[in-house]
Specification:
mainly beta; seven-stranded antiparallel beta sheet; four-stranded mixed beta sheet
Length: about 290
């Protein structure tokens, strides 16, 4: 009898060790996160350093959240859009007529929050030099001037090729849409103030940096916000990984919010008719750790 009790106690004591062993065998994952950097170089559509256009002004917004429509790994600079390894494609819908991103099903994350987590076995083995990320939604803090008083407000920016929106809110401000909105649609509300507005940036004005435009162009007629960036060292997936691979997508927000000035004071004043002309991210630097 005593011998049986001893054996039972040994088995009970061993349970935690078996549990830990089981946990350690969880399959390795590819994890995607976003980072926002106001000091990262500000690029134009060709991936070259750029300045703010004459007659315009810009500021570096403070990001709250972001969403992506499409993520692709590209082996080299000659890989055409869609010919690489596509690891993410957001839900779409035709409820608004033309095909559009379904905003109600979009995943929206803050900085360093996990946007995508998929098994590495689902990623084609290969050596990847470039990453393409089609951004669709941004939410950030900006400074504005209204009736000669400076305020902080929140802007929701839809930069995907087309987005179907039922409604969304900024704080206590509700924006009913119930339809498709083209790239460049935006809405703004003052924090803790009864002021809100919305509008549409000019078609094709959203900056989409692509340093390999000469060999792998992004068709501009698609109005996609596919930002392209290069790994400092190729991301190699060999198919027998035993640890997670965490990819960080560092996005340049260096004066990424740009408007045309009426009163040339460097202050965004929508109430006097100053219009947003560009809300595109200004560059992508992908990196990874294992």
């Amino acid at each position: 009898m005593k011998k049986g009790i001893v054996v039972l106690l040994i088995l009970i004591a061993a349970i935690p060790f078996f549990s830990c062993s089981s946990d350690s065998t969880e399959e390795p994952m590819l994890i995607i996160k976003f980072k926002f950097d106001e000091n990262q170089v500000r690029l134009n559509n060709l991936g070259q350093p750029s300045t703010v256009a004459p007659g315009n002004a810009a500021q570096s917004p403070i990001f709250n959240a972001i969403s992506s429509h499409y993520i692709e790994l590209a082996p080299n600079a000659n890989t055409q859009l869609g010919s690489g390894t596509i690891i993410y494609h957001a839900p779409e819908t035709n409820l608004g007529g033309a095909t559009a991103i379904d905003f109600s099903r979009s995943k929206i994350v803050a900085e360093d929050e996990v946007f995508l987590k998929i098994p590495l076995r689902d990623v084609a083995a290969g050596s990847y030099e470039w990453m393409r990320v089609s951004l669709s939604y941004q939410n950030y803090q900006i400074n504005i001037r209204h009736q000669n008083v400076d305020y902080t407000g929140t802007l929701a920016s839809f930069v995907g090729f087309n987005t179907y929106i039922t409604e969304f809110n900024i704080g206590n401000n509700l924006f009913p849409v119930n339809g498709n909105r083209a790239q460049g649609y935006w809405a703004f509300a003052l924090n803790n103030q009864p002021y809100s507005s919305s509008g549409q940036a000019p078609a094709g004005s959203t900056t989409v940096p692509n340093p390999i435009e000469a060999t792998s162009p992004i068709p501009r007629n698609l109005n996609t916000c596919v930002v392209t960036g290069k790994f400092s060292n190729n991301l190699v997936i060999n198919g027998n990984e035993t640890q997670d691979v965490i990819v960080t997508l560092s996005l340049s927000v260096n004066r990424s919010f740009e408007w045309h000035e009426i009163n040339a004071d460097g202050k965004f004043e929508p109430s006097i008719g100053e219009n947003v002309v560009d809300m595109g991210l200004r560059g992508l630097i992908p990196s990874y750790v294992r």
